[in-house]
Amino acid sequence: xxxxxxxxxxxxxxxxxxxxxxxxxxxxxxxxxxxxxxxxxxxxxxxxxxxxxxxxxxxxxxxxxxxxxxxxxxxxxxxxxxxxxxxxxxxxxxxxxxxxxxxxxxxxxxxxxxxxxxxxxxxxxxxxxxxxxxxxxxxxxxxxxxxxxxx
Amino acid sequence: xxxxxxxxxxxxxxxxxxxxxxxxxxxxxxxxxxxxxxxxxxxxxxxxxxxxxxxxxxxxxxxxxxxxxxxxxxxxxxxxxxxxxxxxxxxxxxxxxxxxxxxxxxxxxxxxxxxxxxxxxxxxxxxxxxxxxxxxxxxxxxxxxxxxxx
Lengths: 151, 150
Fold this sequence. Notes:
The complex is a heterodimer.
Chain A: H1 13-20, H2 22-34, H3 44-52, H4 58-65, H5 69-81, E1 85-89, E2 96-100, H6 102-125, H7 128-147
Antiparallel strand pairs in A: 1-2
Helix pairs in contact in A: 2-6, 3-6
Chain B: H1 9-30, H2 40-48, E1 55-56, H3 57-64, H4 68-80, E2 84-88, E3 96-100, H5 102-125, H6 128-146
Antiparallel strand pairs in B: 1-3, 2-3
Helix pairs in contact in B: 1-5, 2-5
């Protein structure tokens, strides 16, 4: 087992998570830059990825983003203004549906490519068992989140 | 709900981070400190390690991983809201030092307790080997994030 050195330095998991969280963002930003995509608002990339993955349920998207409804609405406005998504209103029931534009689809593909770069690097550094155990640990933290009362 | 085996790692990481975020927010609200700006909890936790000494503001800014402007604005907000005090270093008047106020110490204590609570809870849910793998995995992410992506 090749444990990276920082794992042997005592940092709380919270501190490790804060340091680690930029790994995907940096990789995705590099792909964005290579493809001329430079104005995806944060955390709008999650919305593009959710839409590309077929996610349609807006309440679940908001919960996953950790932002309030107002911030979410502002984020959608920016994505629409910058040409990443469209919003169509159903004339019968007034409901809104979101869809990726061609530009939004290209940005989503860049996001997935950045993710694949990091995942491949992770697989190079850790064994499959280690990755599975890490995933279990992250999922456990997610379970704790769900058990906490909302503030 | 999808098994965690099927959830993309970025989403798992986000969910895991949110466990801390929610626990810290709740603890801060209970402590009467509900106006801490984004990333402010990290600053307060870091300053708590220095007890009552002033820390060089430049070091605090560098540790945040934000732009200098963003970090300075964050510290401004913490000063204005009574969590941090700032003074000119008497030995080098070009430098600024920052430290926690009593309100900042109360908030830092609440943050520490919330983090400890989450970490105690996670050790109930996973094995020691899984915990070690979690740490190793996060460390690997850190190293991957630090390397250039071209």
